[in-house]
Description:
Elements: H1 2-14, H2 19-37, H3 42-51, H4 61-79, H5 82-96, H6 100-117, H7 123-136, H8 143-159
Helix pairs in contact: 2-3, 2-4, 2-5, 6-7, 7-8
Amino acid sequence: MKDNTDKIKSIKLELPKNPELLGRWCLIILESMERFAAQEIPMYRDVILQTCDVNWKYQYRLQARKGLLHDTNEWAMEVLNQQALQSLNLKLRQEFGFDLNDFSNRNNIRIQNILKRGVIRNEEEYRLVSNKVEEIYADDSQKQLICKLNNLLGAFDDSNQ
């Protein structure tokens, strides 16, 4: 069982570094989004194809690919209804051995580690925390967590000016 877990973790970490895998992942999500919306989204398809082009000569392509992966995953989890999300997760699990829930759980663990540490170390962690605040800001039961996360964001902003 541990070998399978390690393999899944390895593939998940490889996605932004492997344009072919990332492209397949994002296109599967996009196709689910298009089916759900009953219309094509050609502009986003173009973004995926450009970002996942192995010949793309953008200096910050790894960061861009990480951003594409994150944004595509978040977009699907926010927009799709439960039935469409379950169908998408089934397709992703069949193709890759993991699904969107694995990324969501990973992000929550990373946020908990940042909270324990008490400091945001880099732009990627900043974005992760910022996205979490956006996700939960309207939930009154999360006010204490929102306050802690906003304090971390503010401290990072202050230290990077």
